[in-house]
Design goal:
heterodimer, A: 226 residues, Rossmann fold, Arc Repressor Mutant, subunit A, 2 domains, four-stranded antiparallel beta sheet, 8 helices, 20% strand, B: 466 residues, Beta-Lactamase, Helix Hairpins, five-stranded antiparallel beta sheet, five-stranded mixed beta sheet, 15 strands, 19% strand
């Protein structure tokens, strides 16, 4: 899951970035509205944590511009403004959630996670595919009741595929969401990671290759295109 | 509670009753006097007739045209009476209507005549005139008959008609008085109510204004001239109150906002450290310290501002060189200004003024700090000092600005105001300028700001006109 944090307080920006990364997100940060808008326009973020009062361009203006461009990214407004009028204004501007400073870190992480679930059209806290179960909250994976040990990167890949179960996910999408978009286009880092993940998940493969298109995580083997 | 309406009603009723009651009594008395005078005039006319007709003939008095007189004073018309006495006081003639009774003239009777009230035959009340006269002597047309021939005439009439007229007058006066009283009691409160309606309207409008509706204003146009100055002053007061409330509301909200971000920073840092103790970043402690310092600076400046506004800052004024103070204060900012390619223009002739050196240094620090940080890179800062009228002095600091507008000027000295909406993560808290102005006031100086056009320059003027 890729998250953008737009916050002008450098200390808060660092802390939020670190907390989100430790929670398994790929995180980009921006210190002002102009940079935040540029990043949001350039990358397919799952969630944007957006401060309202920003130098350059304020958060509501960034949000309005994203919605004008019909970007469907989920936005969590983070602000010190706590009046009902401020909340209403933020939500009416197109925000999906609103959190007032100071906030509990766990609450912010839970809200970001809820927005990620909404981003992939599910309300279930746990992701299940056949006998595979992914718990994003605890970052645990089980197959057939047996725990599967994964590296952080493998877990991110599995969670992303699980959230988009049944859909063909291209390599570039995986690169964007799991590898910060910093992957060399000619490298096979995604293929290697998928291969490693398949091995750890054991027999009865759930990750299927759709040649020339990408990968799909589903129970039954996908039919090859005619 | 005192009520203007009740007091006015009471006093107006009292005045109206006294004036109208007095007028009414005066009218009644005048009418009564007039009626009595008319009655007396009739008596005098009759007396004149009788004295003209009285003739002395051979030592006896008689009346000419006695037949006609006899009809006028007969028993058939028992309203008019007369009696004549000779010089010795013996009755010589009397009207039939007296039925043999006497009129008993008073001893004070004279040639000018005396009028008195008396009881007439059959117990009727009457009024009479007694007058001495000199009867004519038979055969002479004019001329007195000598003192020895003087006679006393008394003419009387019943008061029944007069008393009836007076009673009627009294009745009319009483009925009129009652009607007038009722009219006053009915009319005065209504007139007052109508007259005081604008006051009621004003009271209603004012009572509708509360702490949450200070934007309301009294409609001055609909008020009478007497109330307009009050309403005008009230509106001015409301405007000042509204501005003050708004400033306090904004200050509270701003203060909360200013504190929320560093608290959020501290809380997140602490929660992160607790949640992932093994992955504690080396920068965590530095960030905690920076947040704490930020809050400390905020509290320190707020306290300084509060003390200044409460007049707790005592300035110790000493004669000092303003130009030297500016040079010393600028020195620590020179490197920062140079790093941002800011051009400095100093015009500092020797100028002395009565200042508190420490307070002046604080003011200059705030002004220079803002100028160095907010002047666009490559812009210029100009500082000048000059002597002003009397023993005054003036310091002028102008720096180029790019996004500052005239509309920002009134907000410039508001607490926590900054041109840029974003406030966190900056060194400026938005308290420097209000603090500088408060300090200037503590020294008896003033600090004002203006915007010069083309190129846009924000100009601060610190001056003392004393």
């Amino acid at each position: 899951m890729r998250v953008l944090v737009v916050e002008d307080s450098s200390r808060l920006q660092r802390t939020l970035g670190a907390a989100l990364r430790k929670s398994g997100y790929v995180v980009d940060v921006a210190g002002d509205g102009t940079e935040g808008l540029w990043l949001a326009e350039s990358h397919p973020y799952d969630v944007i944590v957006l401060d309202v009062m920003l130098p350059g361009r304020d958060g509501l203006s960034v949000l309005a511009e994203l919605r004008r461009q019909r970007k469907q990214v989920h936005v969590l407004l983070l602000t010190a403004r706590d009046t009902i009028a401020d909340r209403v204004q933020g939500l009416q501007a197109g925000a999906d959630d609103y959190l007032v400073k100071p906030f509990a870190l766990d609450e912010l992480l839970a809200r970001v996670q809820a927005l990620c679930r909404r981003a992939y059209g599910t309300k279930q806290p746990r992701l299940k595919i056949a006998d595979l179960e992914v718990d994003p909250q605890a970052r645990r994976v089980q197959r057939g009741g047996r725990a599967v040990e994964l590296t952080a990167r493998e877990y991110l890949l599995l969670e992303y595929l699980a959230r988009r179960q049944g859909e063909v996910v291209s390599r570039s999408e995986i690169e964007e969401h799991i590898y910060d978009g910093q992957v060399d286009p000619m490298s096979n880092v995604v293929d290697s990671a998928v291969c490693g993940l398949r091995k750890k998940l054991g027999p009865s493969p759930l990750i299927h290759t759709r040649r020339g298109l990408g990968y799909v995580l589903e129970e039954a083997p996908a039919l090859a295109p005619s | 509670m005192k009520s203007i309406r009740r007091r006015l009603t009471r006093e107006l009723l009292l005045v109206a009753l006294v004036l109208l009651g007095g007028g009414w009594v005066a009218f009644f008395l005048a009418a009564r006097t007039e009626l009595i005078e008319q009655f007396d005039a009739t008596l005098r006319a009759r007396a004149l007739t009788l004295t003209t007709l009285a003739v002395r003939e051979g030592g006896h008095l008689r009346l000419e045209a006695a037949d006609r007189l006899g009809r006028d004073f007969s028993l058939a018309r028992p309203r008019d009476f007369f009696e004549i006495w000779d010089a010795g006081g013996a009755p010589v003639l009397r009207s039939d209507s007296l039925e043999g009774a006497d009129l008993h003239p008073p001893a004070s009777s004279s040639n000018r005549g005396v009028i008195w009230d008396l009881e007439l035959p059959r117990g009727r009340g009457g009024r009479a005139l007694a007058v001495y006269f000199q009867p004519r002597i038979e055969g002479e047309r004019t001329g007195p008959a000598g003192d020895g021939g003087r006679a006393l005439l008394a003419v009387a009439g019943t008061r029944e008609g007069l008393d009836e007229a007076l009673t009627e007058l009294q009745a009319i006066a009483a009925a009129g008085g009652i009607l007038l009283l009722a009219a006053i009691l009915w009319g005065v409160p209504r007139v007052l109510r109508r007259g005081l309606r604008p006051l009621d309207d004003l009271a209603r409008q004012v009572s509708g204004i509360g702490a949450d509706s200070l934007a309301l204003r009294v409609d001055v146009a609909g008020l009478p001239a007497e109330l307009r100055p009050i309403a005008g002053r009230l509106n001015e007061l409301l405007a000042r109150l509204e501005a003050s409330f708004e400033r306090e509301r904004r200050f509270s909200a701003d203060l909360a906002h200013e504190l929320r971000t560093p608290i959020a920073e501290l809380r997140s840092l602490a929660e992160c450290a607790l949640k992932w103790p093994d992955a504690r970043e080396p920068s965590t402690d530095r960030d905690v310290l920076a947040s704490a310092r930020h809050m400390e600076m905020l509290v320190t400046q707020l306290l300084a501002l509060a003390r200044g506004e409460q007049g707790q800052v005592q300035a110790r004024l000493v004669k000092s060189r303003l130009d030297e103070a500016v040079r010393e204060a600028w020195a620590p900012f020179a490197a920062r200004a140079s790093a941002r390619s800011l051009q400095l223009g100093l015009e500092l002739p020797p100028v002395s003024a009565a200042v508190d050196p420490f307070i002046l240094r604080s003011i200059l620090n705030n002004l220079f700090d803002n100028a160095v940080d907010y002047t666009p890179a490559g812009g210029d800062i100009r500082v000048s000092v000059e002597a002003a009228a009397g023993n005054g002095a003036r310091l002028r600091l102008a720096n180029t600005v790019d996004a500052f507008e005239v509309a920002d000027l009134p907000l410039l000295f508001d607490r926590f105001w900054r041109k840029e909406a974003a406030r966190s993560g900056q060194q400026h808290l938005g308290l420097g300028l209000p603090l500088a102005r408060t300090y200037a006031l503590a020294m008896g100086w003033s600090l004002s700001a203006a915007l010069e056009p083309a190129p846009s320059r924000l100009v601060f003027t610190l001056e003392n006109s004393r």
